[in-house]
Amino acid sequence: MVTKTKTMSLSLTLLLFILVSTVSVTSTLENLSPAAENKGYWCVANKKATDEQLQANIDWCCSYEGGFRDCTQINPGGVCYEPNTLRDHASYVMNLYYQNLGRTKDQCTFNGSGSEVTKDPSHDACIFISYD
């Protein structure tokens, strides 16, 4: 009888753990998914930026000197590869740089090619992080 009670107790504990884990993971994923719910500040390439500036920003942000941001998302197959434009790719990595260095106006200047915005630039599965 003791063994059966221990087995039932273990089964109930395991079931409770699975339920709690499922709810926790599901609510976490739901909180990350909707880009439209993001509030805060982002750094994006401005309309005055030249292609040369944009490419230099990508090169810098993805380099060791620039902090070696994870730029795989803008590579072919990455969730932020489309639209495949310098402006979109630069905006994504410029925002990573900006967010990771404290979100100050100075981290978004990029020699006059960056602008802080309050409208979330995320699109489809491409999520622009904001730590606000």
UniProtKB/TrEMBL annotation:
Keyword tags: Glycoprotein, GPI-anchor, Lipoprotein, Membrane, Signal
Location within or outside the cell: Cell membrane
Species the sequence originates in: Arabidopsis thaliana (Mouse-ear cress)
Listed transmembrane segments: none
GO terms under cellular component: plasma membrane; plasmodesma; side of membrane
Its membrane topology: Lipid-anchor; GPI-anchor
Superkingdom: Eukaryota
Every X8 domain range: 41-128
Name the record gives this protein: X8 domain-containing protein
Signal sequence, start to end: 1-28
